[in-house]
Amino acid sequence: MKGLVSLIRKSTPFSFTYICEKNGDSLSDKMDELACFAPGMLVLGSLGYGPGDREKMLTLVEEDTVGA
């Protein structure tokens, strides 16, 4: 979960939340069609954490799904 969270970025100037694609040691500012499953993965993964970390992940889910 923390690895997935490390790939989350915000675009400029509109502050859209997206997940980068990791290729070796480099990150690419694009996401493919399977990224639509990421919010669900974050919700399910958040269940394994305490309240503080869980809330952080659920906030990312809300940011990721706004306007989707």
From TrEMBL:
Please state which protein family the record places this protein in: Belongs to the glycosyl hydrolase 47 family.
Source domain of life is Eukaryota
Q: Which residues form a coiled coil?
A: none
Example GO biological process: carbohydrate metabolic process
- What is the source species? Stephania cephalantha
* Gene Ontology molecular function: calcium ion binding; mannosyl-oligosaccharide 1,2-alpha-mannosidase activity
Record's protein name? Uncharacterized protein
Stored Pfam families:
Glyco_hydro_47
Q: Which GO terms describe its cellular component?
A: endomembrane system; membrane
